[in-house]
Specification:
Rhopdopsin 7-helix transmembrane proteins, mainly alpha, single chain, two-stranded antiparallel sheet
Length: 307
């Protein structure tokens, strides 16, 4: 059975629903471990690049980009906990025990809830910029206040189940993916990517709109399976929720953290320019807007007077 070999505190953490299912085949564990190795490498590399470029490039350290940097950090944390999942998969079960479950779930709670709230802040910033272009720009102090609020807001939702004050963290599906059995963090990856150049603003806005549409599609595609499973678990026939079926939303939700940084790479002009400058071997073809900006701002001198 799925919980064979577990005793004491570890067995007490397993929801009764999973105790009736047989252990999954070794091939399923191997496939999941390999898939998560790929996810982890893509997410840590991509988000690591975003964190490095945005934090070390002065022109990118704007108030709005602080929120994007925060989101990249949370996506990084989301997949930094994946080694626990991979180890459990390699050992074919609940190998990390109660401590591993709590660490995995704590990181997931902070990264999931934090990312959803960060996206709300980004949406507010984008709304203010569009509706009040003259005075709606986010100040750095306000951006830092929003970031602090996100962490303060996420803390009780992460710590209450950790200390079993309200709900608790439990293993799910193959006993390798762990979650809060009362509140599962949802991540709404809707990015707001803003160019800092006045010249070419219309072109930048079109690219931002395309990026937003892409990320909205990714959000719907990635979280719809989780939403369906949650509704079935709450109001439907729970017999439909087999370990194999419920691994689908776990995989699709993690995939978003891998894709997000690559969305930045194809949609943020100044980020692409900085990548092109620091890593020319990537062969990024992003035109430098310095010349066009200078041309736009040049005022021709009047012709000399003739006698």
């Amino acid at each position: 059975m799925l919980a064979d070999g577990l005793t004491g505190e570890d067995l007490a953490m397993i929801p009764e629903h999973w105790l009736t299912y047989p252990a999954p085949p070794a091939s399923a564990h191997t496939a999941l471990a390999l898939l998560y190795v790929f996810f982890t490498a893509a997410a840590l590399l991509g988000n690591g690049l975003v964190i490095f470029i945005f934090s070390t490039t002065k022109s990118l350290r704007t108030s709005s980009n602080l929120l994007i940097l925060q989101l990249a950090i949370l996506d990084f944390i989301m997949m930094a906990k994946a080694p626990i999942f991979i180890y459990n998969s390699a050992m074919r079960g609940f190998a990390t025990g109660t401590l591993g479950c709590k660490i995995f779930s704590l990181m997931g709670a902070y990264s999931g809830i934090g990312a959803s709230m960060t996206n709300a802040c980004i949406a507010y910033d984008r709304h203010s910029t569009i509706t009040r272009p003259l005075d709606g720009r986010l100040s750095k102090g306000k951006a830092l206040l929003m970031i602090a609020f996100v962490w303060i807001y996420a803390t009780p939702w992460a710590l209450l189940p950790l200390f079993e004050v309200w709900g608790r963290f439990v293993p799910g599906t193959y006993l390798i993916e762990l979650s809060n059995n009362r509140e599962q963090a949802k991540k709404m990856n809707v990015e707001s990517l803003r160019s800092n150049q006045v010249a070419g603003q219309q072109s930048a806005e079109i690219r931002i709109a395309k990026a937003a549409l892409t990320v909205c599609f990714l959000f719907v595609a990635s979280w719809t399976p989780y939403g369906v499973m949650s509704l079935i678990g709450a109001f439907g026939n729970q017999d439909l929720l087999t370990p194999g079926v419920t691994m689908i939303p776990a995989v699709t939700c993690k995939a978003v953290a891998c894709i997000d940084p690559w969305v930045y790479a194809i949609s943020h002009p100044k980020y692409r320019q900085e990548l092109q400058r620091r890593m020319p071997w990537l062969q990024i073809d992003e035109p430098d807007d310095t010349a066009s900006t200078a041309t736009t701002n040049t005022v021709s001198a009047p012709p000399p007077a003739t006698a």
